[in-house]
Amino acid sequence: MCILDWWLSVFGFISKDTENPRPVQPENVQEKKEISKMIDFNEEPLYPTAGVVTRRNPVIQTSGPVFELKLNITDSEVVMLADTAQWESSAVILRSTTVLAFRPAWKERPLSCNLNNAEVFSCVLGKEEETALSIIDPVTINLEIWGRGEVVPASKGLLDVNEDTDVERIADIQLQQLNIRLSYHDAIMFRHILNSLPKQAQEALAGSAETRVEDANLQLEHPANVRSQIEQLASLGFSKQDCLKALQNSGNQLDDAALWLTQNASPQRTPSPTKSKPSEIEMFFGNTSVSFSSIQLKTSCVNLVVIDDCKDADCPLLELSLASLHLKQKYDRCGSLFSTISSSYYNRALSAWEPCVEPWQCAVDWTSTKLGSSGTRNTINIKSVD
Q1: Which of 24, 61, 200, 334 sits 20 to 30 Å CA-CA off 38?
Q2: What is the rounded distance in angstroms from the CA atom of residue 240 to the CA atom of residue 224?
Q3: Residue ranges in the chain assigned as alpha helix (H)
Q4: Spatial separation of the C-alpha atoms in residues 126 and 108, rounded to whole Å
Q5: pLDDT, greater one: 112 or 288
C-alpha cells in the first residue's frame, strides 16, 4: 500500500547498522593481511593502443560473480489511495507478478524489472470485487536500466589519462499492445491521488507529524507571548525546545535568550544545494546506483478510450490510437516522439465507431532552453510525411 510515511519507517528500520554478533579475532585479521601480501601483479601484459605510446592497461581483477538481488513476487498488488484518512476510500490497484533483479555493482545493467500480466483497476477499498473497474488490460511490461558505455573502453594511449569513464544510462520500457480505458471519475480520482502524494512525501520526509505534536504541546503549556518569542528565536535556526530553554534561563528576555542560544546551543543544519560540475550529466535519482539520464518507451500500439460515465451511463466517447510508438524523454526536458496517430469517435445514434483522424505518421520533438536567470524557452517541432 502506497503510504509513504510507513514505507520510510520500514526503510529506516532496514537501513540501520547492527553490531556484528561474531567479531573477527585479531589473529584472523593478521592472517588475512599476510595472505594478501603474497598476491603479485608484476606480470602485467602489454596491450597495443591506437596512440603513439603503448601503455599498460590495468588488469581487471574479478573476485567472483557480481552480486545480484532477485525477487520473484507472485500476485503482487500496489495500492494507491485517494484519501488516506478514510477507510472506504477510492483506490487504484496495480496487480501483477513481479520479477525484480538488482545489481548495484554492475554499472551497465544495475536494474531490471518484469511485470507479467500487469493490470490496473479502480475500486473502493474493502469492496474490490463489487466496485472493480478495469483501467489497463493485462499486459507484460519489461523495464531495464542499461548503459551506453563500454565495459572496457578502447585505450587511446596518453589521451585517455583524464577521460571520464562514467556510463550514460537509459531506462528502457518495452511492452506490447497497451489498452487504457479512462473515465471522468477516474480522472478525478487520479487528481486526488496526485495531490495527496506530495503532501504525504513532505510530511514523511520533514517529520511534520512530530512537529505538529510539539507545537500542540507548546500551545497548551505556554501563553501566546511566549509562543511568539519562541517563533522569533526559532527563525534563527534553533529548535523550539532549545528556544524554550533559553527563555526559561533568561527570564523571558528575548535578547538574552538569543545570546544564550549562541553560547549554549547549536542551530539545526539545513541541507545546502549541491553544486554539480558543468561536465556532469544530470540524471534521475542522481548519486544512486540506479541513476539514469533519459527514459525511452517502445510499444507496438497504445489505445486510449475515453468513457463518458456521467449520469451513471458508461458509454465510450473517443478513442485515440498511437501505433509503433517510440517516446524518449531526457532529464533536461528535451525529448522526441515517433508514432502513427489515429482517432475515432463513438456514434451513439448508430452504435458504431467512426474515424475522425485518419492514420497520420508524424515525429514530434521538444526542447527546453534556459534564458539566463529570467526563464526558459520551450520549442516544439512537428514533422509529418503525409
Answers
A1: 24
A2: 14
A3: 4-14, 26-37, 128-131, 184-206, 208-221, 224-234, 240-249, 254-264
A4: 43
A5: 112
